[in-house]
């Protein structure tokens, strides 16, 4: 049987090669972004599987989603699913995110941010530029400390591996209290306060769902160590913005590294902040590029294509989303 697979994003030559290498022998690959209506609409209606980067409005329109008749799987190349219009997707269609596909470069970015903050590298660099040779600031040593990782999926495992490599204990939180990587402690969300209290570094790498919206607020920040480090590579809204700003302002020894923001350029309001975070010396930011390294999209596309093949062959797939996590 030959399956129909619709690709909704403008795949480059390398991405096309890996898609064809994995799926050519069992499917017709239909690049719908090259088509115009009504051919595009008819092609989507007959697709067994849709391969999409993020399933955003820029790739597929709401009326096209509602009209999907034959589709059994929507496979994402990206890991995040918080902007998918689940209410418009028929209940019989499975949706799979590409969880962990960007884990290795993301983990390196987490370690880099943690080290920069622990060693006060950027503030001291700026002071040197103004002629101040400040040797009064102690470096924070990671070795012997505890790294708490909230979200022990593929990203969490890659982060844990690097943190163990620099000599930290790693304590993890996820819903199953299980991890494919050996940790010093693994618990459920019921154990989160304990992990926050004892961790020197806390890394957020959970999806943004109804359960994780504002997961870190005033209470959670206050029970963390006064000289703790918070790294967010999850989604901006996992952290309550006002609570973090006030905590950083009132607790100069506490530091935060943010890669994912509350509002980003792709959002209707663009990149905006409600508070002047960049006036604070204990904040380090990056423009949501933690996993952006050469070749990563090609590798992620190949992983997504393999997941599609497993689905079509009746095998277990990774990253299948429980839509109840995202819709009321």
Any descriptors?
single chain; 328 residues; alpha/beta; Rossmann fold; 2 domains; five-stranded parallel beta sheet; 10 helices; 30% helix; elongated
Just name the CATH architecture of the largest domain: 3-Layer(aba) Sandwich
Number of domains: 2
Number of strands: 12
Outline the low-pLDDT stretches.
none
Judging from the principal axes of the Cα atoms, what is the shape? elongated
Question: Helical proportion?
Answer: 25-40%
Radius of gyration: 22 Å
Please state roughly what percent of the residues sit in beta strands, choosing from under 5%, 5-15%, 15-25%, 25-35%, 35-45% or over 45%: 5-15%
The helix-strand sequence is EHEHEHEEHHEHEEHEHEHEEH
The CATH class of the largest domain: Alpha Beta
Distance N to C terminus = 38 Å
Major β-sheet, in short? 7 strands, parallel
How would you classify the helix and strand content by structural class? alpha/beta
């Amino acid at each position: 049987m030959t399956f129909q697979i619709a690709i909704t994003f403008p795949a480059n030559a390398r991405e096309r090669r890996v898609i064809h290498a994995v799926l050519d022998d069992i499917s017709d690959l239909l690049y719908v972004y090259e088509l115009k209506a009504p051919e595009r609409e008819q092609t989507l209606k007959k697709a067994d599987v849709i391969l999409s980067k993020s399933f955003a409005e820029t790739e597929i329109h709401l009326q096209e989603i509602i009209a999907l008749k034959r589709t059994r799987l929507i496979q994402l190349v990206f890991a995040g699913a918080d902007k998918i219009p689940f209410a418009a997707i028929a209940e019989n269609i499975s949706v799979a995110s590409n969880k962990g596909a960007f884990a290795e470069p993301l983990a390196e970015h987490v370690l880099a941010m943690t080290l920069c903050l622990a060693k006060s590298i950027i503030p001291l660099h700026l002071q040197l530029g103004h002629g101040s040779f400040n040797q009064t600031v102690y470096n924070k040593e990671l070795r012997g400390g505890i790294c708490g990782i909230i979200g022990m999926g593929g990203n969490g495992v890659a982060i844990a591996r690097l943190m163990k490599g620099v000599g930290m204990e790693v304590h993890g939180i996820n819903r199953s209290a299980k991890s494919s990587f050996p940790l010093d402690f693994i618990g459920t969300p019921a154990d989160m306060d304990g992990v926050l209290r004892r961790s020197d570094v806390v890394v957020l790498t959970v999806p943004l769902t109804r359960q994780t919206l504002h997961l870190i607020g005033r209470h959670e920040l206050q029970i963390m160590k006064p000289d703790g480090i918070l790294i967010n590579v999850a989604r901006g809204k996992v952290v309550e913005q006002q609570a973090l700003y006030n905590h950083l302002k009132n607790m100069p020894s506490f530091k935060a590294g943010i890669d994912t923001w509350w509002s980003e350029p792709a959002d209707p309001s663009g990149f905006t902040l409600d508070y002047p975070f960049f006036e604070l010396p204990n904040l380090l930011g990056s423009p949501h590029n933690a996993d952006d390294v050469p070749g990563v999209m090609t590798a992620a596309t190949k992983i997504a294509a393999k997941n599609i093949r497993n689905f079509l062959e009746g095998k277990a797939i990774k990253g299948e989303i429980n839509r109840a996590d995202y819709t009321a």
